[in-house]
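>> Question from a student workshop board

For tomorrow's exercise we were told to take the sequence and the ligand below, predict the bound structure, and bring the output to class. My setup keeps failing. Could a helper post the expected result so I can at least see what it should look like? The ligand is zinc ion.
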Amino acid sequence: MIGATAGALIASCQQQLSDLDGAFYDGDSRLVHCGVNLDTSANTSIASVDSALDRARDRREVVELYAHHPDDTVPLDKIEHVLAGARDRNLAFFTYADFARSSAAAAGLALSFDDTSIDAWFAMRDLLQQYRARVTFFVSRYRNISADQRQRLKALAADGHDIEAHSVQHLRAPEYVEEHGLNAYVRDEVDPSIEILRNDGYEVHAFAYPFGARTGELDDAIAKRVPILRSVAFTYMLVESPCPR
Ligand SMILES: [Zn+2]
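>> Workshop helper replied:
Here is what the output should look like for this input. Compare the format with yours to find the bug.
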């Protein structure tokens, strides 16, 4: 647990989200996109989120945000604040499939949810519909999810949401490559995570790196499979960001 002083120190070493260029897509056809974490643990304030939504509106860029488990790692009212903020600023919703289909940018929001919290995502369905939101779900460990959960994902996809790949075992890619080699990572963690979704009827356009951890060598290899990669941008100034810009 961090005390008030340490918490304030961490907050003071954080950038405003609106200053984090990597989290804004400007239509440059980039391969590697970077999202910013909305989870409570990432300490991203509502004011900082609002500054990012303002920048997206003012510069006609797409701001990329992600979280994990609604009502657990991120409060539902924070998600609703983001959705309402997008509506109030006339931001368009972008999925990662949209980035693959067209390089055009506009004042927009790309919101994604990572990992395996299928039931909590499904429970958020009405909220997303209320704001006519289209979001992306980056699913890891798909082979372990139940038949019921697969049906719930299908229902979310039918609502217009995007289902994309997020590896098999959610390991750190650069470390796996160091230990087993690049080909082994692609064979064990990338290809099966894409194939299992394609076998269930999803067109897969994007791969999100677990923890955002990536290298240029990994980007080149995975770009042969999907046209869009997602890493992360950190607001913490003292931590090296895996985002290439
Ligand atoms: Zn993840």
